[in-house]
Amino acid sequence: MAHEQHQELIRALHDCAAECNHCFDACLQEDDVKMLAQCIRLDRECADICAFLEHAITHNSPFVSELAAVCATICEACAEECEKHADHHEHCRRCAEACRRCAEACRNAA
Predict the structure, then answer these.
(1) Got the DSSP string for 4-66?
(2) Which Pfam families match (predicted)?
(3) φ/ψ (deg, to 5) at 85
């Protein structure tokens, strides 16, 4: 089954989506939400594509490679944005790390 050969990717996608969702929520609790607007937007986008790709893998989609390439691009963008805030927000640092790991796993699958 396709999902068995992609266990590492599925784990990375799941972890990335969870960290993005946590970062999204934590950013909304910060004092300067406006400064974090791009981070919040990318957290949502990244969590959504990770969840979608995880779902596509388990449904044996013929587009896993193409979706993984797009997911890698979005994960990288989210990591770059979160890294801008990582010195001040632990949730951004953890999110950036998860996004980098996920981007690498996605590139390997693409």
Answers:
(1) HHTHHHHHHHHHHHHHHHHHHHHHHHSS-TGGGHHHHHHHHHHHHHHHHHHHHHHTT-TTHHH
(2) Csp
(3) -115, 0
Q: Which token pair is 102? A: 């996920």
CA angle, 50 as apex, 58 and 66 as ends, to 5°? Answer: 75
CA distance 110 to 92: 26
Quick one: which of 42, 32, 47 has its CA closest to 89?
A: 32
Q: 0.85 cut: is pTM over it? A: yes
pLDDT in tens, 20-36: 999 999 999 999 899 99
Q: Is residue 99 packed enough to be buried (19+ CB in 10 Å), middle (13-18) or exposed (0-12)?
A: buried
